[in-house]
Design brief:
By secondary structure, the chain is mainly alpha-helical. It is built from 25 helices and five strands. It has three domains: 103-352, no CATH class; 360-466, no CATH class; 469-571, D-Maltodextrin-Binding Protein, domain 2 (3-Layer(aba) Sandwich), CATH 3.40.190. Helices cover 59% and strands 6% of the residues. It has a five-stranded mixed beta sheet with strand order 2-1-3-5-4, covered by helices on one side. Strand 1, helix 23 and strand 2 (506-509) form a beta-alpha-beta unit. The radius of gyration is 27 Å and the shape is globular.
Length: 593
């Protein structure tokens, strides 16, 4: 027998969130950040470099390499998607924009799958609110739709979703595939065809995106719940068997492509545990406190002998993400996979949320995002006009050499978003206490507002600081007269991708140094480059720093002609910056800043 549900919801409380408003919010959130910028450091640029190499036929599709280096992540699926998009659309769109279009679709798929998954969870008999003696309780379909709207708002409100969901990396692919598998687990065994298709795509996608172990654990959890769930017993056996077969197929796929990797790290010291705690607090806000409230108020249902899929399934997905966060690196990107499940748990807190807690969430959200929006506008105004002077001076100090520009389109989008936020606050101030999703409207709207303002008003500054473009402009100038190939030493895959994309040079591994007259190396790697260079035969042509990080510096070296090698010990002048140890200083070129 099921324990009594703690949810008490009237029909008036499940009034639908207007579709146009929800779709507009999702569209604005998805569009901001994907376009109008260069690839960012480091994972974004690295992934784009491998996509270009695949699209141009310079590397193998099953074992991609860039200048002799394999990608830092094991996911093949995101690289394939970006490369296919470049092949199809690269003649009409810039390559970086074409590569991002599949990831816009992946983010949209994440939002849609999360909404549908929560909808099916809320349709279950154990998730329904208390039936009133004289009627008036929420109808199942309307109740499920209202909770799905609330869950989607909770997902959009999560602060950690913004940046990583707008990068062309394997982590967004893992998030989308995990959301597909979450939807499949929620919909089975009530439906079969579409959920099984989603499960197949999700399991295969997780394996190809570099998370085969999570795919297996999530698939096994979904199969177990499909077997043990109450409801349509006629479908539970075939649903569980199909999920097990698909999980086995994903396992074999990962094994055949050699995608299994051991990423478990040792237990961290106390300082890193404090860092992980801070990560959990801000990354999953505001979903995590609501999820904890759900676990407390629905604790009797969780502990009951009859499995409650609307609680156990999102709890299983969330626990897997937490375990991956604690045991693998990078921790923040591992936690990304748990956001749809945490949003589902947060949605089930709303039918039991007390008025005081809801008011506290509203006031905190209102103050936090309003102050953030005001700060963003003030800094933008200071950069454009010089007033106030202190923010403008801070930007000039943090980003030396940055030249502000005005975009009418970005300004209009930011202004409209700010006006929409004011209208949303005015609506919430009218004390619309009935609708169940009201407590998540301000968090979702505030998160979307802040992200949209950052990606419009601050985008030139962020692009200047986070992209390779300013640094590569100096490298390109130093290599302007270079002929033939350029060797690279000590470069990361992201740096190599940036040199290839921005300079258009024929970059090769350092093993091909004998064939090249130029060398690009990271300054932190130059002590080891000496074993590759013949003494007295190389000179420093330029030393190019990243404007926002002076210690991040690339050295451009060139092979000295025979005549210059004979004269270098006698008449070489001191360069403006100290050359790398063991290298002859450049007689003509100053150090690039």
């Amino acid at each position: 027998m099921n324990p009594p549900t703690p949810a008490i919801v009237t029909q008036g409380a499940v009034r639908a969130l207007p579709r146009w408003a929800l779709l507009l919010l999702c569209a604005a959130y998805m569009a901001a950040g994907f376009f109008g910028r260069d690839p960012w450091r480091n994972a974004d640029m690295e992934a784009f470099g491998f996509m270009r190499a695949l699209a141009q036929g310079h590397t193998d599709w099953l074992a991609p390499q860039l200048v002799g280096m394999a990608p830092d992540t094991d996911g093949l699926l995101p690289l394939w998607l970006g490369a296919w998009a470049i092949e199809l659309l690269g003649t009409w769109l810039p390559a970086e924009y074409a590569a991002r279009l599949p990831f816009v679709a992946l983010l949209a798929l994440t939002l849609a799958a999360t909404w549908r998954g929560i909808y099916f969870l809320a349709r279950g008999p154990a998730a329904q609110p208390v039936a009133f003696a004289f009627g008036g309780e929420a109808q199942p379909r309307d109740y499920a739709r209202a909770l799905a709207d609330a869950g989607l708002l909770a997902l959009l409100a999560c602060l950690g979703l913004a940046q990583y969901s707008h990068e062309t990396t394997s982590y967004l692919a893992q998030l989308a595939c995990g959301a597909l598998l979450f939807y499949a687990g929620c919909a089975l065994p009530w439906r079969m065809a579409w959920p099984l298709l989603a499960a197949a795509c999700g399991l295969a996608g997780l394996a190809l995106a570099g998370a085969p172990s999570l795919a297996v654990l999530m698939g096994l959890g979904c199969a177990a719940l499909a077997w043990a769930t109450a409801g349509q017993h006629r479908l539970r056996v075939p649903a569980a068997a199909a999920l097990l077969a698909l999980t086995l197929a994903a396992t074999l796929l990962a094994w055949a492509l050699d995608l299994w990797r051991w990423r478990i790290v040792a237990l961290q010291d106390a300082k890193e545990w404090h860092s992980l705690l801070r990560l959990f607090v801000w990354f999953c806000w505001p979903a995590w406190p609501l999820a904890l409230w759900t676990l407390w108020r629905w604790r009797h249902q969780i502990a009951s002998r009859t499995p409650q899929r609307h609680l156990l399934l999102p709890l299983w997905f969330a626990l897997l993400a937490v375990a991956a966060t604690l045991s693998t690196r990078p921790a923040d990107r591992a936690l990304l996979l748990g956001l749809p499940a945490l949003a589902a748990l947060a949605a089930f807190a709303l039918p039991t949320l007390r008025r005081g807690i809801a008011a506290l969430i509203d006031w905190f959200t209102l103050l936090f995002f309003s102050v953030s929006a005001i700060a963003i506008w003030i800094v933008w105004l200071a950069v454009q006009t010089g007033v106030p002077a202190k923010p403008a001076a801070n930007v000039a100090k943090l980003a030396p050499g940055f030249a502000p520009s005005f975009s009418a389109l970005a300004f209009a989008a930011a202004l409209l978003a700010t006006l929409a936020w004011c209208a949303l606050v005015a609506w919430r101030a009218k004390r619309n206490r009935q609708v169940i999703w009201k407590s998540l409207v301000l968090p979702a709207g505030g998160a979307a507002l802040s992200w949209l303002l950052l990606m419009t008003l601050w985008l030139p500054m962020l692009d200047y600081g986070r992209s390779f473009a300013p640094q590569m402009a100096g490298v390109r100038a130093a290599l302007a007269g270079a002929r033939g190939c350029v060797a690279g030493y000590g470069l990361s895959p992201a740096q190599a991708a940036a040199v290839l994309y921005y300079t258009g040079s024929d970059l090769r591994p350092v093993a091909d140094l004998a064939q090249c007259d130029w060398l690009v190396t990271d300054i932190n790697a130059h002590p080891g480059v000496g074993r590759w260079l013949a003494p007295g035969q190389w000179q420093q042509a330029a030393s190019v720093a990243r404007p926002t990080e002076r210690d991040d510096r690339l050295l451009v070296l060139r092979r000295m002609p025979p005549a210059d090698m004979a004269q270098a010990p006698q008449d070489a002048r001191q360069a403006q910056q100290e050359p790398a140890p063991g290298l002859a200083p450049a007689p003509d070129e100053p150090a690039a800043q």
